[in-house]
Design brief:
Elements (H helix, E strand, L loop, with lengths): L1 E5 L2 E5 L5 H7 L23 E4 L6 E2 L10 E3 L3 H14 L5 H6 L4 H9 L14 E4 L2 E3 L9 H10 L4 E4 L6 E4 L15 H5 L5 E3 L7 E6 L8 E7 L2 E7 L12 H5 L14 E4 L2 E4 L2 H19 L4 E4 L6 H15 L4 E2 L7 H11 L16 E5 L3 H4 L1 H14 L2 E5 L12 E3 L6 H14 L5 H7 E2 L1 H8 L4 H8 L3 H13 L3 E5 L1 H4 L4 H14 L9 E4 L6 H6 L6 E2 L3 E2 H12 L11 H9 L5 E5 L3 H4 L3 H9 L3 E6 L4 H6 L2 E4 L8 E4 L4 E5 L12 H11 L11 H11 L8 H4 L4 E2 L24 E2 L18 E6 L25 E3 L1 H6 L7 E5 L4 E8 L7 E5 L27 E7 L1
Parallel strand pairs: 1-5, 16-17, 16-26, 18-19, 18-22, 19-20, 21-32, 22-23, 26-27, 27-28, 33-37, 34-36
Antiparallel strand pairs: 1-2, 3-4, 3-5, 6-7, 7-10, 8-9, 11-12, 12-13, 14-15, 14-28, 24-25, 29-30, 30-31, 33-38, 34-37, 35-36, 35-38
């Protein structure tokens, strides 16, 4: 630490801090336009010039390090006169209209502070670039501060903007083409967020009356956002500058896809189906009807004839109440959530080997790693803030990158090795890497001796997977497999990140086990920059499952039978004895006539489950389908009997749990429309109508969270009051506990030693042949999310209005298909029609399709195969044939 005097005030700051940062931390407002804490300071605006006693010249505060004993003057008549002169020149780039529409822009704030009038005029419409629906470009207002150039390169890693010309002739332009849309812009909004003028603004932005800190409702990265509201309407979203996860950055969904909140088709009052028509009902009428319907099913068929599906879009508090509702109000362990189709394979695999089914590390360990392995994930599109962090670390710091993905992606461009394996062959590939590491004497012998069991048996097993043999199975070059193994084992701490490309297979759980084995034999578990980290798909999929929305576990991911007594004492009631059905078994039971009713919360299963035809047949047999959602989903529209309107995360209080085990606050920014209510409130009211007078009388979400902490000791120290200062990673057992960044540092979740598991390869029965010659995988895209329930009702829908079938150029030519032409893709289970996108990233003989457009319904094509251990559907391997329409 250093101590210095700034404007006569004694200021203490960390060593290495700039004068500008030290002054601002002390509440001394030094003006600047070119500075942003997220980028390197360049001192171009000169507004932060300060005097330092003993210095002959003025210095830029943003570029000058604060030193012990300095005497600094930031404001006096001479300095402020100079600033007024500079601001007068900048004012030529600000119109009176700009000052009214964008009072928060830094130039406008400084003009107001120093009493500078606008000297510019509004730009003609023809000068505005509106080619991106999210971003308005008016370079007549640009002051050449270079912040957009820097933040795009240094934070997003895209380098969309660049400077051309010199001196008075310099200007900022898109790097490719004349319009922003012609470049590589991904609409992250970083440039509009940093721009101090109206050169770059959010399209349609309005001044906010208030700002509320909350957590993004999209992927599992858990970015914190500041939500701007005017007149009880969300008008803007911006990344929180001090958020530990996103560090002042966001993606296109977090930044711009909030429009669903005020969509005209939001459900605002309960609906009950009478015959073929939906009729409005009061809450009392709707809840009484639901209670009567469920009671009738229980009376005739027993409680296990009912299933409950919780939502991974809901808060932890909502999900806790959902599983408690299933077990106490209904009396069944038939409770699950969408984790079944994505996250459960990882949770089961990591729990089995490491004793905890959660990420071993923090996202900050990305920057601590020397090597990063990305397996079955496309972070740049599906987890963009993490993708940007990986890209930045590789490019700026020289970290090695290995990508395992059947299709090339943005990170492939900077990878040391990209292994474009045949879909479904992850296990032989990872086993081959483990074999080569052991055979090459690259395994971590000390870690193995100290912390692992059954190494010899594991080494003998993977010896059956030499790279030369596996290369044929995976359709790869054996030399590339060996090189990837050597980089992973020999490049210092290695951070592994994986996604649904690894889990959504018949051996998804076992593939994650194989990846954990690989990390263990190289000692890449339990330390900074080293671990196994799933990139969770939905915002709270980790939390919803962890709250006990799984038939076999209770809150805290403890096994039902192990913790039964503890929960019965805490809840003052017996838990159901019958083993529960998971999601896919509920679908099977409905098809067999054994399940009679389903409560579906924030989850459009008809649109999202694989093998849609079978899902539809099962839903059609149910006597009662109660849907709690924001919209009339396909599930509700086609098979629902009651639709109860839910509040979005922007309209309620609570917490989410992100992919790195961080509990973060969700805060209410605006009122829910009409009669919409929070999930927990709806379920508690329904439980009371079903005879549960106690246990469902929570006054607010904080009371629910306090009960969660009481039954889940690993979160005992995470209080709402502590969360006001920022998110906390569990385990956190007491209020003085700071939380845990890295798991398994000294011992594993189940003890001091872990057992390596030989993983055998049992390939999927889904095969290509002469009739179905292509292998199709499905996945997400950058601008839409899942089945677009939320993102499809936002500006992002213009960026990606429909799904595409991506084909290699040679395959498209052979099929006589052109870019944008409609093609029919047909499997052994169904067909769909999609526009073709010719994409060089796709390997010949393979196809890739996104799945957000429910009208295209690509899940009519995916098949019935499921994970051998946890029942997750196989979305990544479907044999298809393709023809022009």
């Amino acid at each position: 630490m250093v101590t210095l005097k700034i404007d006569g005030e004694s200021v203490t700051a960390p060593t290495g801090t700039s004068i500008l940062e030290a002054a601002r931390a002390a509440g001394i407002a030094v003006p600047t336009i070119c500075w942003d804490p997220r980028i390197e300071p360049i001192g171009s605006c000169r507004l932060c010039l300060v005097e330092i006693q003993g210095y002959d010249e003025l210095v830029t505060a943003c570029q000058t390090e604060a030193k012990e004993g300095m005497w600094v003057t930031t404001h006096n008549a001479e300095l402020d006169a100079y600033r007024r002169t500079e601001l007068g020149w900048y004012a030529e780039h600000a119109s009176a209209e700009d000052l009214i529409a964008h009072p928060d822009k830094e130039l406008h704030r400084l003009m107001a502070r120093f009493g500078i009038e606008s000297a510019g005029c509004a730009s003609p419409a023809k000068a505005i670039d509106a080619s991106m629906p999210q971003i308005r470009v008016d370079m007549a207002k640009c002051i050449d501060c270079l912040r957009c150039v820097q933040i795009c390169e240094e934070v997003q890693g895209a380098s969309v903007w660049h400077e051309v010309g010199r001196g008075d002739e310099s200007r900022i332009v898109p790097k490719h083409g004349d319009l922003l849309s012609e470049g590589a812009c991904v609409a992250c909004g970083a440039c509009t967020d940093t721009c101090p003028t109206t050169a770059l603004t959010d399209a349609g932005a309005m001044p906010a009356d208030s700002w509320t800190r909350t957590t993004c409702p999209y992927c599992g990265v858990g970015c914190e956002l500041d939500i701007g509201v005017a007149g009880d309407r969300i008008v803007a979203a911006r990344p929180a500058r001090d958020a530990p996860v996103n560090k002042g950055h966001a993606c296109s969904k977090g930044r711009y896809a909030f429009g669903f909140t005020h969509s005209g088709d939001r459900q605002t009052q309960p609906l009950v189906r009478k015959g073929r028509a939906w009729e409005p009902a009061s809450w009392d009428e709707a809840l009484d009807h639901c209670a009567a319907q469920l009671a009738e099913v229980i009376g005739r068929h027993g409680p296990d004839a009912i299933g409950v599906l919780a939502s991974s879009r809901s808060t932890n508090e909502d999900s806790y109440v959902a599983q408690k509702f299933a077990r106490l109000a209904i009396g069944t362990n038939n409770i699950d959530c969408c984790a079944r189709v994505c996250h459960t394979p990882t949770a089961a695999a990591m729990k089995a080997i490491l004793g905890a089914g959660a990420a071993t590390n923090s996202f900050d360990d990305i920057e601590r790693a020397s090597t990063i392995l990305v397996a079955g994930a496309n972070p740049s599109e599906c987890h963009p803030v993490v993708g940007a962090r990986i890209r930045r670390h590789v490019v700026a710091n020289g970290a090695k990158l290995i990508v395992l993905d059947p299709r090339a992606q943005a990170l492939s461009e900077i990878a040391s090795v990209h292994l474009a394996l045949k879909p479904g062959t992850d296990i032989p590939l990872i086993n081959a890497m483990a074999h080569h590491i052991i055979a090459s004497d690259l395994a971590d012998k000390d870690f193995i001796a100290a912390r692992l069991d059954e190494f010899d048996a594991f080494a003998a097993h993977v010896a059956q997977f030499p790279p030369d043999r596996v290369a044929d199975i995976c359709e790869l070059d054996a030399a590339d497999i060996r090189r990837a193994a050597e980089i992973y084992a020999g490049g210092g701490p290695a951070y592994a990140a994986h996604g649904l490309g690894l889990t959504e297979h018949v051996q998804g759980t076992e593939a994650v086990m194989a990846l954990v084995n690989l990390a263990l034999v190289t000692g890449n578990v339990g330390g900074p920059g080293r671990g196994v980290n799933p990139l969770r798909g939905q915002n709270n999929v980790q939390g919803t499952a962890h709250m006990g929305c799984d038939p076999g576990i209770l809150t805290g991911a403890v096994a039902l039978e192990e913790a039964r007594g503890d929960f019965e004492r805490a809840w003052g009631a017996e838990l159901p004895k019958t083993p529960g059905r998971h999601l896919m078994k509920m679908i099977d039971a409905a098809a067999a006539g054994e399940l009679k009713a389903l409560v579906v919360i924030g989850y459009d299963i008809l649109a999202s489950l694989a093998d849609e035809h079978e899902t539809a047949k099962a839903l059609a047999k149910l006597d009662c389908v109660i849907v709690i959602d924001l919209f009339m989903t396909r599930t509700a529209h086609e098979y629902g009997h009651v639709l109860l309107p839910a509040a979005s995360s922007f309209e309620k209080e609570g917490t989410f749990m992100n992919a790195e085990r961080r509990i973060q606050r969700v805060r209410k920014a605006t009122q829910a429309p009409g009669a919409a209510r929070a999930d927990w409130d709806i379920l508690c009211a329904l439980a009371r109508r079903m005879g549960c007078e106690t246990g469902f009388d929570f006054p607010d979400p904080q009371a629910i969270w306090d009960e969660i902490r009481a039954v889940w000791p690993a979160a005992g120290g995470i209080t709402y009051s502590r969360l006001e200062a920022g998110g906390i990673q569990w385990p956190c057992r007491g209020e003085s506990d700071p939380g845990t960044e890295v798991l398994h540092a000294s011992e594993f979740g189940h003890g001091p030693r872990a057992r390596l598991r030989p993983i055998h390869y049992h390939p999927t029965t889904e095969r290509t042949d002469a009739d179905y010659p292509f292998l199709m995988s499905t996945g997400r895209n950058l601008y839409q999310f899942n089945v677009a329930t939320m993102s499809g009702r936002s500006a992002n829908a213009l960026m990606r209005p429909t799904d595409t079938l991506d084909l290699a150029p040679a395959d498209a030519a052979r099929l006589a298909l052109t870019d944008g032409e409609l093609a029919q893709v047909e499997s052994r289970y169904g067909s769909a029609i999609l526009p073709v996108a010719i994409d060089e990233r796709v390997v010949e003989g393979r196809a890739f399709a996104t799945f957000h457009d429910t009208e295209r319904a690509i899940n009519r094509v995916t098949g019935p195969h499921r994970d051998r251990m946890v029942g997750a559907p196989e979305y990544k391997v479907t044999a298809v044939r393709i023809r022009p329409v």
